[in-house]
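Can anyone check this?
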Amino acid sequence: MIDLGTTLAERPIILDGGLGTLLESRGNDVSSSLWSARVLRDDPDEVRAAHAEFVTAGADLLITASYQVGFGAEIPDAEVETLLRRSVTLAREAGDAVVAASVGPLGALRADGSEYTGDDGLTVSELRDAHRRRLHVLADAGADLLAVETVPSLRELEALALELADLRVPAIVSLSADSTSLRTPGALSRAFEIAASV
C-alpha cells in the first residue's frame, strides 16, 4: 500500500471511480434510497469485486460503500455497525490500496433532499450527535482514513470537523458545490477554513 504523504509529493493519487455507477454497470440495482448500501447489505461479494476492479484499473485509494449507512435511518440500527465494518473489510480485501471509509451527510441517510440543501433543521450540537457513533465505528473498523463526502452546509461541516478533531483520525472532506446553503457570499471560504482544520 502506498504512503499518501510521500506519494502526493511525487505524483497525483488515483482515486476509485463512482462505486454506485460501477455496481450498476455490473448489473446491480442501486435505485433504492440506499443506493450502493443495498448491495453492501445484500451482495457483499459484488462490492468486493467492484473495489477489485478499481484496483486493477490503477486506483490507489478506495472509498467504501458506507456513504448511505448510518444509525437512525432506513437500515435497522442492529445492522448498521456490521455494515459499516463490512464496508471497510470488503475494500481492504479487494487489493493493495488505501481505504477511505465513506461518511455521507445526514441528508443522505434521510433521503429527503436535505443532502443537497443542508436544510436539516438541526443545530451543530445535534448534528455532532447524529454523526458521532458512525464516525467512531468507521474509525475503529480499520480504514486508513475517513472520506467525509458532499457536506451541504457550514453547520454540518462544523459538526463533523469537531467530531473528527476528537477522533484524531486522518480525513478528507468534500463539499456539495450545488448546495443552496453554500452559495451565500463567503460561505465557501468559510467552509474551506473549517475543512482545513480537520
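Reply from J.R.: I decoded it. The longest strand covers residues 145-151.
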